[in-house]
Amino acid sequence: MKYMPLQASTFGEDWDLVWNFVLWSSIISCIILIGGMIYFIFRYQRKTDKDKTAYITHNTFAEFLWSFIPLVVFMGIAAWGWEVYKDMRTFPTDALEVNVTAQKWAWNMTYSNGRTLTGKLVVPVGKPVTILLTSKDVIHSFFIPSFRVKQDAVPGRRSKLWFQATREGNYHLFCTEYCGMNHSGMLGTVSVVAQADFDAFMAENPNAEVSPIELGKQLYQQQACIGCHTTDGKPLVGPSFQGIFGKSVKIKGGGTVTADENYIRESILNPAAKIVEGFPENQMPVYQGALNEDQITALIEFIKAQK
Amino acid sequence: MAHEHSTDYLHHGKGLWSWLTTLDHKRIGLMYMIAILTFFFFGGIFALLIRLELMHPGTQFMSPTVYNQVMTLHGTMMVFMVIIPGIPAFLGNFVLPIHLGAKDVAFPRLNLFSWYIFIAGALIAASAVVFGGVDTGWTFYTPYSIQTYKGTVFMVLGAFVMGFSSILTGLNFIVTVHKLRAPGMTMNRVPLFIWSIYSTAIIQVLATPVLAITLLLLVMERTLGIGFFDASLGGDPVLFQHFFWFYSHPAVYIMILPAMGIISELVVTFSRKVVFGYTAIAYSSIGIAAVSFLVWGHHMFVSGQSEFAGKIFSFITMLVGVPTAIKMFNWVSTMYKGSIRMDSPMLFAVGFMFLFAIGGVTGIFLATLSIDVHLHDTYFVVAHFHYVMVGGTLMALMGGIYYWFPKMFGKMFNETLARITFALIFLGFNITFFPQFIAGVQGMPRRYQDYIPEYEWLNRISTIGSWLIGAGFLLVLYVLIQGLRKGKPAGPNPWGAKTLEWTIPSPPPHENFTTTPVVSGGPYEYR
Predict the structure, then answer these.
(1) Could you report the predicted ipTM of this complex, rounded to two decimals?
(2) Which of A112, A295, B64, B413 is the most exposed place for a label (fewest CB within 10 A)?
(3) CB distance B177 to B213 below 8 Å
(4) How many residue contacts between A and B have a Cβ separation below 8 Å?
């Protein structure tokens, strides 16, 4: 059916069967009900305001029928829905595992070999994949319409979902739990590739032998700094990085501070310590423990380079 | 004050002060009407702004920060200040005592106090806009609600305070129904509107305290840093969802049951026929109220709740469909061999059945576990609850307003214009919300300020529909004001209805009945 998003996972067919059954039984019951109503409106139009009408108080058999038949149909639908859902929640043991950490407002994927990606999930076609979900800040929800899967990413909890993609291609990844300002921008791509391409992807090591600035730039994208800090001078949620290094900035609660290495480091690890005047508090996640010293250095070098 | 019985309630006592201190249930009902229509006006403006912003992808005129606040204000105002109090507190207050043959509700002072609590709560909630804004959505999910703007606390406290108004009104109605029925009016002879308001009152009294506790915990966490829900303080964010929906799912039936009561009255009156299956309709209200407490987990199928819990909730949720189907079939059967006149209240009743049928069956989609995984938190859900809340409750409220307007003010409105308002609202509603089912099935998540270009055509249709709804409600306002000012005298019973309120003059005298009525038969004896 055209109105549905392309189905590209092994759940698609079973899912669509249940959907079609519910859809058609709904259409039929609406036609009976609404059709009957409209027919009566025309058939039994009032002629005079003194019209005599039939005195029918009830009909036990008819009432039994329209209670019992819906009950049976509803229970059947619930049972069928449960059967398909059970498959969605029965996790294969041989699945490829990908850790996904949600944060305002980005998806961070970490593969078993340490390879990380932000906003993009690469998976092989025809192989079961389990997504291990958590969140750094508030509740997010991981939704791939074409795979018919969704699961909340809850801070302090680990949740999971699995799928097996059946078609190569790129699919939308949405956040479907309201998570604040840039909720509707928290998008990603799921890239389903052939096994050989996936192996090649896993073999790459993009972080090897790059300059600190280059590494900082990658971290800037991967750690989602880019979601709130631009490099073109336009402030977003937080200050732009352009020209910020060495500048004297006003701090909330009074006072000024020079944006040197120490201040930038503190602001990465503990953002709430000194907020620049005019920017919101409590928007940036705490990176204490999330970044090692090399990475912090690389980020500082990158910010320095944004003149 | 027996000598004053002949004055109608609108002229019994003069000036603003006599209204603000009135103990008359009819006046209090009208005071609720004024408050609710005012909130509805603002909530509606917010809705139109939301649709305008969503007409095209990208930012039109509201940044995400502004959009999220407008979306939240629309949701909280419409739920807590319009739909929940809409029918029970406004029409319920006006009609319930007269339906029972009583002079007033059981506790008139408490009734007036409830109105003041409601207004106080609404003002506290509205002050959130001044004190930093709210952008949580009407559900206040933790931990986001703990971290975001300070205004959240005011909004939550406002909802907390308004909850007490709801509890006290419910209590008042329960006692009134039990103690103040006229001689001869057994529980099997009360109009079906009473049964629905009574079922609603039970939910109001039993479920609202849970919301109050939940909101209080949220405020304590926010202001005192006690970790009930915040994972970083050792709490559990999902616990909030359990608490919240334990109230808010039954609240959905607080919103729809009174609407079903109005539809029962309208279908009977405009079919000139005894209601089909009185007992089934009456007890299905109680049935819906009872089951409503056991289905909250269907809001949480993908929250990380256990699969087993999900299964149980899915099956129990399906049970709600049965009493709902019974009501629908009984209304249609009431029309069978009737004498049907399609005046404006009946148009809205028929519109209700049309839209509520769609809202109802889409509820079955969402109760089905596997289907819900895909549809949860998409526009399908948005479309579903607007079909139930607007297509259901608001259509019934409109039908009820037109139906009881002549009784309230003793004047008739312009029937032709009233029919046009129905056409505008009904068409506009379908144009606005039907495309949202498709957008949802295609995966468009709700509460999005921006969306991918694939969804643009659906959103554009939806926005155009919203203008029709807006025009329709503006015209309603005109019809009501014009009716008030220039309407022809209505007479005691313009619709040929059988319940007690139509046996007394329009507008009714101060204490409703000069002599207490004695009831000797069912409420809808068209023989």
Answers:
(1) 0.91
(2) A112
(3) no
(4) 269
